TrEMBL record:
Domain of life of the source: Bacteria
Protein name: DUF1657 domain-containing protein
A matching Pfam family: DUF1657
Species of the source: Neobacillus rhizophilus
InterPro entries referenced in this protein's UniProt entry, alphabetically: DUF1657
């Protein structure tokens, strides 16, 4: 598996985790848990954004990774 494939797979996993954290934040009855899930979701969102940038960089530098 190429580096680009690994980064894209990691990005897809992070999107799923972000979605699950969002759902947990919305469905949680405990306010402190709700806040923890929300904060974690925001942190994952920042990491996801960094990885999206990295994918763009990989695709720009290595045209064979586009797709």
């Amino acid at each position: 598996m190429t580096v680009a494939s690994n980064v894209k797979q990691c990005l897809a996993s992070l999107k799923g985790i972000e979605s699950q954290l969002s759902s947990l934040a919305l469905n949680s009855l405990d306010q402190s848990a709700k806040e923890a899930f929300h904060d974690s979701m925001l942190t994952i969102g920042k990491i996801k954004k960094d990885l999206q940038y990295r994918v763009l960089e990989l695709e720009r530098l290595e045209p064979q990774y586009r797709g």
